[in-house]
Amino acid sequence: MNFLLKVLITGLIAYLLPAILPGVKVADIKTAALFALVLALLNAIVKPVLVILTIPVTLVTLGLFLLVINAFMVLIAANFFKGVEVNGFWWALIFSILLSLGSSVLYSLVGGGKN
């Protein structure tokens, strides 16, 4: 149930963020929810492999390279949908940061962290 709540919250934030980010477009709420689901699956399957492969770079950059990995996850997930458009790496980086922050705040507000 928590996974579904996180995906729905991420989808909502992904739907709202293009209003303030001109380099990102999301067609509708259904596309945003599916985008959030694909992003969650990529983060569960692909991201751990990338994190392990890039440990030296991550250590040298004091963990900032993880932001780059998050941006690439957004770009990869956006490639699955015609309704999601991210205009370049920098927009993906900004989008991924705001998506993480917004999802965390909203998830904590709805009480998702409580058992």
TrEMBL record:
- What are the protein's UniProt keywords? Membrane, Transmembrane, Transmembrane helix
InterPro entries, alphabetically? Answer: Phage_holin_4_2 (IPR007165)
Please give the name of this protein. Phage holin family protein
Annotated transmembrane regions = 32-55, 62-82, 88-110
